[in-house]
């Protein structure tokens, strides 16, 4: 189970997230007006900080993930190549053609396409097969707020809606949307899905002042990585 935490803006953030057990660290580039937006130079510096972080022997250093709303695949690839970032998270409403262009331009990248879910409706539902044909490696299910806000909504998804969408796709998926240590039991069936690969968190990874909190992140990791108890059959 992978734990991704989103929105690092400093080497200290990277160190806190790595020590707390994040496998993937989201770095924003091309999120206009976003509080964690990074210039291309800062993106490269923090991606390097992720890769060179000293973690325990049992765990590899966290993988940097470029999180972007950019609609231009050339701009995404330029930033990713310059920073050496091989995981690309398309968090906007980029169409399947953008995924295809990224995979053509750099076949080794892992493309994570966000599917935006509001209630029981997924905006990308009619395009799922197109996104898969275009080369999407991993889908990320995230909630859109009632006001239409995208990313870091703290809004949870209905597990039934998640499972239904999982069945409409064939690729691995990450779960986002208000994920916390406390709500893991609600998603028991989701975590048991054979293509569930992990969770992506922002709001619950932070303290009241908005700073990343190692205790909270550690708690999320412990709860979501725990193997559910299996009833013994007599
Ligand atoms: O973290 C953000 O603010 C953000 C901004 C723009 C694009 C993506 C963003 N993060 C994504 O938000 C969800 C998690 O949010 P939460 O736990 O519900 O607060 C996750 O997909 C992040 O990648």
TrEMBL record:
GO-annotated molecular function: phosphoribosylanthranilate isomerase activity
Catalytic activity: N-(5-phospho-beta-D-ribosyl)anthranilate = 1-(2-carboxyphenylamino)-1-deoxy-D-ribulose 5-phosphate
InterPro entries per UniProt: Aldolase_TIM, PRAI_dom, RibuloseP-bd_barrel, TrpF_fam
Pfam family, one: PRAI
Alphabetical list of Gene3D superfamilies matching this protein: Aldolase class I
GO BP annotation list: L-tryptophan biosynthetic process
Pathway per the UniProt entry: Amino-acid biosynthesis; L-tryptophan biosynthesis; L-tryptophan from chorismate: step 3/5
Keywords: Amino-acid biosynthesis, Aromatic amino acid biosynthesis, Isomerase, Tryptophan biosynthesis
Family: Belongs to the TrpF family.
Name of the protein in its database record: N-(5'-phosphoribosyl)anthranilate isomerase
